[in-house]
Amino acid sequence: MYKKIILFSIIFFFFFENSFANNYIERTIDWHKFRTIKYDVKSKDYIFKIWINPDFWATSLRELMEKNNWVSAINWVFFCPASYSECGWKNFTNNERYFKWIKIGTSSSTQDRVVFAIDKKNKPFLYQTNKLNMDRESDIYYGFANFPLLLQDWESKIQDYIDLGLVDSKMTAKIDRNFICSDITNRFIYTWYVSSISLLDLPDLLLKFGCYNALNLDAGWSSAMIYNGRYILWPARDIMDWVVIERKWLDTKNIIDNSVKVVSIIEKKISKMSYNEKIDYINNLISSLTKLRTSIYEKNSKDLYDLETWKKNGYEIEIKSLKNIEIIYMVNYINKLFSELKIKLTDENNQIEDKNNLLF
What we know:
This protein folds into 2 domains: 2-247, no CATH class; 252-357. It is built from 8 helices and 19 strands. It has helices spanning 2-15, 61-68, 158-163, 169-172, 202-209, 252-269, 275-299, 322-357, and strands at residues 23-29, 32-40, 46-51, 70-75, 97-99, 102-104, 114-118, 124-127, 142-146, 149-152, 155-156, 175-182, 188-197, 213-216, 225-227, 230-233, 242-247, 301-305, 312-317. The strands form 3 sheets. Strands 11-10-14-12-13-2-1-19-18 form a 9-stranded antiparallel sheet. It starts with a helix and ends with a helix.
């Protein structure tokens, strides 16, 4: 098992030496789908951050992305949502979080939680009070604590949590599981989800994926992912904290402003059309833009293969051009605005129909 993992890591390190840091991966391993973002810590074009919201403040992931010039983002720590009465109708988390060396948390000790940390040189490591890298807390530039720790140095740590009585029915249920991990070289960080799996089985699958150290993230209704400005998965609630990726020299505000102008021009152009004509016109534009995005993704993707059978088991999107990122971000934002415009037009049409119905 370990020989295969080592082989995988060596192949990955040498053959993907020029990897970029906002790569999207879909792979299927043992019938489980991985959907992940790969970040290269040596990237000169992308910045990896942990974004911290103060306690009692949860908000929309998209809203924060648009304000902060992010290109991709994923949710992470467990928190108690305001929608739960047992949380006192407030959002909060007991999990320690670190933002530019500043520790934000309600406890002086990580206890059973483990920190996935990033130092100033962008290198990932694990930290836990009195247990893991005990002398390195001061090195944590970005970081967050969560549980359970899934892998440490290729070894599953789930049994430790079972022994402590911390594994409950939510952990043993087969649902989509979110994670963050680093490979043996500490060159790559992977984060997002594996489909339909128990936490008890997740560590072994992450080993096959190529993870060396891995930490569980929040899942369920808090699961959220935006890639290149587009929701891949919408959360069912506002959330508190995120792993985010920025693309240097990408001006999302300018793209958003221009997108709003484009859609405003289209709205005026179709103002004299019937409701059905308007919807058909917008749908055709959405379809054309989607085809453009797909074309760029296809031209910048490569197939991935199982190392044992050498059968294709997924693909990876790697976009090197800033111009292409700008185009995709604009396509995604304009499509979002078109979808909102369709809802607005439908509401207006329904109001007209309701008013006409009152005449009979």
